[in-house]
Amino acid sequence: MTGRNARALETSGGFNNIVASLLQQGLGPDEAMRFADALARVDSDAASKAAQQYVDPDKATLIVVGDAKQFLDELRAIRGDIEVIAEDQLDLSSASLRKPTGQGAGE
Amino acid sequence: MLWTHRERMAKVVVDEEVFETERGVVKEELRQRVLAPPYGRLQRFVLPEAAYDVMPHRRPGIGSIDDLDSATLDDARAFYEAYYGPDTATLIVAGNFELSQLRRLVDDYFADIPSRQNPVDLAIAMREPELTGPRTVNATGPNVPLPVVGAVWKAPPTTHPDGAVLEVLEAILSRGDNSRLGNALVRTGQVVEASASTYLFREAGLVSAYVIVSGTDSMELASSTFDAEIERIRSEAVSAAELAEAKNEIVASALRRRETARGRAFELGEALVSSGDPEFADKRLAEIIQVTADDILRVAAKYLDPQKRVSITYTDGADDPASYANPTPMPEFRTLPAATGEIRQVLAEDKRIAPPGPGASPDVATPEIVESTLSNGIKVVAVQTGEVPIATLTMIVPGGSKTDSRQKAGVANLAADLADKGVEGMSATQIAARFESLGASFGGGAGSDGTFFSLTAPVANLGAASALAAEIIRGATYPEQEFERERNRAAANLQVAAKNPGSLSRFVARAAMYGDAPYGSQPGGTIDSLGAITREDLLAHRQSYFHPDAMQIVVSGGIAPDAAIEAAQAMFGDWSVATPAGSVPNEAAGKTQPVRTIVVDMPDAGQAAVIAAVRAPSRKGDDFYALELANSVLGGGSSGRLFEEIRTKRSLSYGSALGLQIEQMTPFFRPAHKPRMKLPMKLRRYSLMNSRGWAQSHCPKTCCKSAGCI
């Protein structure tokens, strides 16, 4: 990760992207140079603890896009309650992800 | 590093198990990179099949599923013994090292590598015959959202004196926003994309040009405009301005590439392999600078000859290689001598040589960060990051998808993206021509939290290029015609993205993670929301968010901080606006959304995309670095656990990645796979078990070591 960060900082475009993102998030530009040190201070306990806290499959939302008939039964067996949305019924602008039903076209 | 190269070059272990796993991985790569993208077959299969008759270049490097199924371990062994040896390998090292130390290490690690076991001659004496008459190919493929018309011609080997001229010709035809095909076809709305490419190899080459047409009913018009543009460049001299612009574009892109050690190494290596001359990259650039308008006319007339052209259409239909088969039968190429060496085995773990430990980390001076404030209060960060005379200026302003209304999602992104389509007294074409003639590239885009504008230019041209960039940010006019066309293009691109399981799954993930909160808004909008946006919306967005009170600037590259700050002052130091800057929501992530399992049914998809997503803490949170590290252990590159388990051991997918997507407040954490269709459940079950097992067990010291934390 330290190597990747150093390589990203090698170009003026990459450097600016990293620093501009930090500024946008309210952090200082020197944070870009502290990356290696900050990472070196993380020990395996801290990494495991972060993973245990956040990477929990029971708390993960699962999204599968593909030909449903090829995997739906198997998915049901392990994941229970599944929302199947046909590609032409998908609405990416709402939390339900479904186009409203019972409304006339264009409304 | 050199030890690793030595081991994999000279001591590679390829047995049945390794071979079968890799076969699966390469088939997945083929599906993901060629068969799934809408125009993958066109680029990798149709064009070379049309351009070459007898040369081995006709075969796609990656092969077909049938080719891969019929390959054997013995074929791979024969290839290894025929081609892998010290006389065929070139080591290219670029970057920060001591030459005498490198020479010693190279002797230590490479001197005893034995010569090839079954050497074959690398030279290919055969050459392509000229085409004796024009030909037309009407190819079809599955999942092609918009039709393509184009053509391909044969071209000479890269070392041919006409090679430099063909590179300039390609740039005049399609490079940048101001180009022959771009102006005649994209700007007029006939097509959504135009491309011309020159591929020159050691023994042969091709020139291809094609356009992705706005709709089936425009094919005839696009095709005749395309033909007229090709005829025009063959019959009339290009202007001095076009010629200068093309050369500046090529030189600036070479400078950009040379900013990095990797870029320098690849440039040297590619030039060497295709020419045999380590100085070739510099020689080619010098030749490009010498190209004249007469050269272009002569070379265009010679190579883009309608009598020697294969015309191509590519439309939605059956996946049928017969529809684009070259009438010349595929020749039989060489058969390699059978492998004779023994198949190596990996030693038992306790008998293996340990790789040499890392050397002492060199002291690398970090560049000085200079922070300054313009006379109107805009903050500037300036850092000299290198010596290559090219620099980048980035302007940061608020206004991102989190400030868009849901009905007009995509306003921030369109306002950033289309800012360079017009200012008072200058059209989009004039702006593009001005930047491109300076070898500069300018672009804007909005993410969830805000907007960036970036300008990269050779330092000598930075003053002129930055003056125009400032005019754009301060006064973009969004001309109606440009707006209409670009909005339609954005909608057409969304249509293409919606047919791609990978990109569609990411749109779905955003909505599922953030629901109706501001971060749930699609940064690129939806087809409906793009339709609701007007140019007045973009003007209003610009006036409230591109604002001196909220702007910050970053400058880096081969430029001294003083000069960088002076350039920023000239751009924005006198800018003031009476009205206040636009408002930004304090809370954009909203409340945690319910855990869901969502299947989007896409019956004709060639692959499935799987995302498991959870919310993660903010970039400023205390856990950020710990989570970055955990993320890298689990999903980082080809040593990550997901990659190891999903690709290396099971070949379920060509790629798997874990990413921290950072929004200002609450990023979400999401692994994404693109497994082939039939196996997502096996894959899904594996990856959830894996992350659960890992999360509940302890991260061993060794995994942290390989990720670089100890």
- Give the N-terminus to C-terminus distance of chain A in angstroms: 50 Å
Helical amount of chain A: 40-55%
Q: In total, how many beta strands of chain B?
A: 17
Q: Determine the mean pLDDT of chain A.
A: 87
Find the structural class of chain B using helix and strand composition: alpha+beta
What's the helix count of chain A?
5
Seen as an oligomer or otherwise, the chain set is heterodimer
Terminal residue distance of chain B: 19 Å
Low-confidence stretches of chain A: 103-107
Radius of gyration of chain B: 27 Å
In total, the number of strands of chain A is 2
* Major sheet details of chain A: none
N-to-C order of helices and strands of chain A: HHHHEHE
- The fraction of residues in strands of chain B falls at 15-25%
Physical arrangement of strands within the biggest beta sheet of chain B = 6-7-13-8-12-11
Poorly predicted ranges of chain B = 671-710
Q: Any idea what the shape of chain A is?
A: elongated
Percent of sequence in beta strands of chain A? 5-15%
Give the helix proportion of chain B (percent range).
Answer: 40-55%
Report the structural category of chain A. Answer: mainly alpha
| Average of per-residue pLDDT values of chain B | 88
